[in-house]
Amino acid sequence: MGIERLMEGNQAFVEGDYVEDIDYYKELLKGQNPHAMLIGCCDSRVVPEITCHAKPGEIFVHRNIGNIVPPGDWNIGTFLEYGIRHLKVNTLVVCGHEECGAMKALSSGESGDDVHIPGWLSHAHTALEMVEKRGKKPSDPEEARKWQSELEIENVKLQLKNLRTYQVVREAEDAGRLRVIGLYYRMSTAKLEVIEPGKPLNAE
């Protein structure tokens, strides 16, 4: 069923959006010129191109479980170097979101038989420690949701710090060529909230 739905969806895209805006899609063959690059979560409910109402070619996206930026990671590092040095993107975003399954797993401490997930989530553990210093997760469901949201936002702040362990980010930001921003997508309202606005860019 899965592959059939993918193929059916592609056919609908070809006959609809692609045909209706064919000149735009043909132009993309010449190259990409995104206005922002974004590190977001793999969660299938949170799609940056849709939530930001962006067309293909506008956002350079990297997605992983929990929108995490491990220091020294080759995958993240390649994304950063290509986006900043070669595509010359001047806006870099880490975007977390409400009801993040990765952050729920982190706060529960339950890993079951998982081999890879616990190690990956360890790169967000400092965020959990920060939130737990302010108080343990409440038992009341509504208060627990607010606490979980605090953790998701704290994780964005932590990953922004981790971003700056990469030389390519530090150099571009210090030179005023790059703005590093934290965002939080609140699924209950479909709105983006600015967590950290980043430094202004050089006027040149």
Q: Can you describe this structure?
A:
The structure is a single chain. The protein is 47% helix and 16% strand. The protein is α/β, with parallel strands linked by helices. The mean pLDDT is 95.
Bin the strand percentage: 15-25%
H and E string: HHEHEHEHHHHHEE
Alpha-carbon distance between the two ends: 52 Å
**CA gyration radius, whole angstroms:** 19 Å
From the spread of the alpha carbons, the general shape counts as globular
Q: How would you write the strand order of the largest sheet?
A: 2-1-3-4-5
**How many individual β-strands?**
5
Give the rounded overall mean pLDDT: 95
Task: State the helix count.
Answer: 9
Q: Approximately how much helix is present in the residues?
A: 40-55%
Please summarize the sheet with the most strands: 5 strands, mixed
Content-based structural category = alpha/beta
- Give the uncertain stretches in residue-range form: none
